[in-house]
Amino acid sequence: MDKIRKNDEVIVLVGKDKGKRGRVAQCIDANHVIVDGINVAKKAVRPNPMSGTLGGLVDKLMPIHVSNIALFNPASGKADRISFKAVDGKKVRVYKSNGEVVKV
User: What is the number of other CB atoms lying within 10 angstroms of the CB of residue 26?
Assistant: First the structure.
């Protein structure tokens, strides 16, 4: 069970996008995720008339390591760590600071 999942709202802790918030768009593997609007790189694309694509610079979302992001806690308005707890026989994620269950 991963601490950060798809559609979670996260905040960036380090790097060029420090302090920015976004939603997790995709989990690449156990250690990397793609966050909307975070870690955007410019990629040069060649035109291809067969497929109808234009050439030029396009924005590409690059993966970011999970150690560089943290789940955003809407109650406190800050980044928060996650722990696991058994509630009604199910394993759920809870915020470390206030013990509230993370909304899915």
Answer: 12
